[in-house]
Write a structure and sequence with these properties.
The protein has one helix spanning 2-16, and strands at 27-34, 43-49, 60-66, 72-77, 83-88, 93-98, 106-110, 117-122, 128-133, 138-143, 148-154, 160-166, 171-176, 189-194, 199-205, 217-222, 230-235, 240-247, 252-260, 267-274, 280-287, 290-295, 304-310, 315-320, 326-331, 344-348, 353-358, 366-373. The strands form seven sheets. It has a four-stranded antiparallel beta sheet, with no helix packed on it. Strands 4-5-6-7 form a four-stranded antiparallel beta sheet, with no helix packed on it. Strands 8-9-10-11 form a four-stranded antiparallel beta sheet, with no helix packed on it. The protein has a single domain (34-373), classed as 7 Propeller (Methylamine Dehydrogenase, Chain H), CATH 2.130.10. The protein is built from one helix and 28 strands.
Length: 383
């Protein structure tokens, strides 16, 4: 009978320790819209398995429809990832998803006096959100519990896009970027606001060229754990990376250029993100399409380029697996020619190369607009 018990035990262990590839999955939320050439317009949010070891790799496991004229744009988590916020360029509507309820449900929140809803940031207590309105030159402050707009902050410079909050110094920074209709003069500044009052404190040019430079700063993101506080700004048309450095004595920022992507044959820098330790900086460039990795452990003023990994044209938002082994890059910017491949690149950060491409949406005539990993697999609340 011992041999029978051994066989049963071996069978159980064999089943229990089946290769992880049979059970693996990593689920992402990806919002999408039709490519311009499609006759019938479609918008939605897809749940896609992005684990290249999974039997369901690249498959859409759930599809949530959105209004066809919404022009959905970014997806954000709040601080504890209990809610997802979807901004929109076409309608003055913010969609909110309660991530604690399944199936997921969309709640449409009207945002009066806000045209072209762009970027959002949240307070650490999850009680307040700030939303940039690129078409109406203002920021909407909202109650993050009820998701109702509270007040509006008028801005001195047009086309607000990127926004970042540092509660330790009570400061918000906002970029002035490109006109939403593509007409008019792109911005070249970053505005500093006192977060607690909404008071405009200063505006700073982030270009070494004569005005109007047309550089269009797009994102501004504070560096995690930096002392003094610092924030990177990328100029979408200027192709440069700038750094804002806080002076704790004068309580003002100084600004300096730290990198020029033309030096590596790239342009259109888009997304800025960091490692949890704050020792690595990741910047996507849409042309020709790369994930650029910098070492900023010694001095953020002098980022050292470690590697530029080829993804696809329009390389834009990026998210990371919990173990930091993989990056997932969404390749599309506003359905623009030469910037809208439509794929999602799977990058192995240890090997330093793209190892797979998710073409599911692309093959259906759709373009992904943003990507986040579902809370179980997410390493943070970035967009």
């Amino acid at each position: 009978m011992k041999w029978m018990k051994l066989i049963l035990l071996s069978s159980f262990l064999a089943w229990f320790t089946l290769p992880l590839t049979l059970h693996a999955e990593m689920l992402a939320m990806v919002n999408y819209e039709s490519k311009p050439e499609q006759v019938i317009r479609k918008e939605g949010i897809a749940i896609i398995d992005v684990d290249h070891n999974s039997a369901n790799f690249g498959k859409i496991l759930m599809d949530i429809p959105l209004p066809h004229n919404l022009v959905n744009h970014h997806i954000y988590y709040n601080r504890d990832m209990s809610k997802v916020y979807v901004t929109a360029l076409g309608l003055s509507t913010l969609h909110v998803i309660d991530m604690t309820r399944f199936p997921y449900r969309l709640k449409a929140v009207d945002i009066p006096n806000c045209n072209v809803l762009e970027d959002a940031t949240f307070t650490s207590d999850n009680k307040t959100w700030y939303l940039t309105c690129m078409g109406s030159q203002n920021i909407i402050v909202g109650d993050a519990v009820t998701d109702r707009p509270i007040k509006s902050i008028s801005l001195p410079e047009p086309y607000p896009h990127g926004i970042s909050l540092n509660e330790n110094i009570d400061r918000i920074m906002v970029t002035s970027t490109d006109p939403p209709d593509g007409k008019g003069q792109p911005g070249e500044t970053v505005t500093v606001i006192e977060a607690s009052t909404g008071q405009i404190l200063s505006t700073h040019k982030v270009s070494n060229k004569a005005s109007p430079s047309g550089e269009a700063p797009v994102e501004v993101i504070f560096v995690p754990h930096s002392n003094p506080p610092m924030a990177y700004i990328d100029n979408i048309y200027g192709g440069t990376l700038w750094l804002a450095i806080w002076d704790p004595i004068k309580e003002v920022f100084s600004f300096q250029q730290t990198f020029d992507f033309a030096s590596i044959g790239s342009s259109i820098p888009l997304n800025v993100s960091f490692s949890e330790k704050g020792d690595r900086l990741y910047v996507t460039t849409g042309i020709p399409g790369h994930l650029n990795i910098f070492d900023i452990s010694k001095d953020p003023r002098n980022p050292k380029l470690l590697k530029s990994i080829k993804t696809a044209e329009g390389a834009h938002h990026v998210v990371f697996s919990l173990d930091k082994r993989y990056a997932f890059v969404q390749n599309n910017l506003l359905n623009l020619p030469g910037l809208s491949d439509g794929s999602i690149s799977v990058v192995d950060l240890e090997q330093g190369k793209r190892i797979a491409s998710i073409d599911t949406l692309k093959n259906q005539g759709l373009n992904p607009n943003c990507i986040i990993l579902l809370p179980e697999w997410s390493s943070g609340h970035s967009h």
